[in-house]
Amino acid sequence: MMRTEEIVAMALERLDNDRYVLSNLLFARIKELGAGATPLVNMEVSKHKLADIAMREIAEGKITFDGVEPLPTNA
Q1: Where are the beta strands (DSSP E) in 1-75?
Q2: pLDDT tens digits for 2-45?
Q3: How far apart are CA 11 and CA 41, in angstroms?
Q4: If you ran DSSP here, which 8-state letter would residue 16 be given?
Q5: How many CB atoms lie within 10 A of CB 55?
Q6: Torsion, CA 5, CA 6, CA 10, CA 15, rounded to 10
Q7: How many CB atoms lie within 10 A of CB 16?
Q8: 53, 39 in Cβ contact below 8 A?
Q9: How does pLDDT run across 36-66, given as a tens digit for each residue?
Q10: What is the rounded distance in angstroms from the CA atom of residue 66 to the CA atom of residue 75?
Q11: How far apart are CA 43 and CA 48, in angstroms?
Q12: b vs e for 57-72, b when ≥16 Cβ sit within 10 Å of the residue's Cβ?
């Protein structure tokens, strides 16, 4: 079993070490899991914290961040 620090390091590496993006992606995924989304890793919601599940999903590349969409302009 991997240590929490190793999982966080893997997740950060996948996101170019951007802690801001990691925290936002993590929060969004925790909301989805809390609303009943099925985990994308082999971890049960009843046995693990949602944050741990979401972090593992990001670390394993199951959840990705492709960038920010530009806001529409009023042309």
Answers
A1: none
A2: 899 999 999 999 999 999 999 999 999 999 999 999 999 999 99
A3: 14
A4: T
A5: 23
A6: 10
A7: 9
A8: yes
A9: 999 999 999 999 999 999 999 999 999 988 7
A10: 26
A11: 7
A12: bbbeeebeeeeeeeee
Q: Which residues contact 57 (CB under 8 A, 6 or more apart)?
A: 29, 39, 40, 41, 63
- Integer angstrom CA distances of residue 59 from 20, 53, 69, 75: 15, 10, 23, 40
> Tokens 């969409």 sit at which residue?
69
From 45, 63, 47, select the one nearest 55 (Cα to Cα): 63
CA 5 – CA 68 distance, rounded (Å):
27
Q: How many residues does the chain have?
A: 75
DSSP code string of 51-71: HHHHHHHHHTTSS----PPPP
